[in-house]
């Protein structure tokens, strides 16, 4: 098992200087840095090579996250939008392969937060299944786990629970299409986090942790001992990423609705200390 942190914990924006943050994650004791992918398609060959070498030199694995926009909605009723989305994600997977990544997660099967009006969910689900079946072949060729992130009803309509996600992944039928569960979202949608994890079983390809209000994990409303019990029950040995989203004033806050400072006014040193405390808390659950 490896333990990671999202780049956005330290940033107001999803994207920025990943190379320096790799070093910061390493200093804080993390094995993995999870980064947002759209910017990768804008980097030069030299910039990508520098990102890859920095990760290798610091022995930090890179994991990858996306939230697709409406123009790349893989569940769209517009075939042109689906085709553009499939081509876009294939380009992302190719860059991830170059960077040595094995974990691609997020709302990578429909659009993030871009839905309104009456939705024909069965039809949109069928569209998404078809899109992911095609992308699964690329994920298999790249040896990448394509993890469908299960988020709450306010962020997308297609997959809100572990049960829905397992059914979806089973229908796609690829060993490389798995799911990502997240304690923040499960706290809203699931009756039991432990049961949701156990139901996911071998389909659980990635896992996010954070508190009910998206701070770094700590004792509180979420019973993390039951989360750990569920993960142990299925023999989970992939990445656990801390995904605190706590800063205001940028794209992270806009997209994730962070309207107040959740850092308690922390400076850089205190941010690092809080991250390390969260990491220690999670690691102790698996000691």
What's the quick description here?
This protein has one domain: Divalent-metal-dependent TIM barrel enzymes (TIM Barrel, Alpha-Beta Barrel), CATH 3.20.20.
Describe the 3D structure.
It is a single chain. The chain is α/β, with parallel strands linked by helices and 287 residues long. The chain has one domain: TIM Barrel (Alpha-Beta Barrel). 43% of the residues lie in helices and 15% in strands. It is built from ten helices and eight strands. Strands 1-2-3-4-5-6-7-8 form an eight-stranded parallel beta barrel, surrounded by five helices. It is globular, with a radius of gyration of 18 Å. The protein starts with a strand and ends with a helix. The model has no long low-confidence stretch (mean pLDDT 95).
Total separate domains: 1
User: Which of globular, elongated, flat, extended, rod-shaped describes the shape?
Assistant: globular
**What's the CATH H-level superfamily name?**
Divalent-metal-dependent TIM barrel enzymes
CATH fold annotation: TIM Barrel
What is the mean predicted local confidence, pLDDT? Answer: 95
Total number of beta strands: 8
Distance between the termini: 12 Å
The largest sheet, given as strand count, sense and whether it forms a barrel, is:
8 strands, parallel, barrel
Spans of at least 5 consecutive residues whose pLDDT stays below 50 are none
Radius of gyration: 18 Å
Q: Into which percent range does the helicity of residues fall? A: 40-55%
- Beta-strand content bin: 5-15%
Series of secondary-structure elements, N-terminal to C-terminal:
EHEHEHEHEHEHHEHEHH
Looking at the overall shape, the CATH architecture is Alpha-Beta Barrel
Main-sheet strand order equals: 1-2-3-4-5-6-7-8
Q: Which CATH C-level class is it?
A: Alpha Beta
Count of helices?
10
Secondary-structure-derived class: alpha/beta
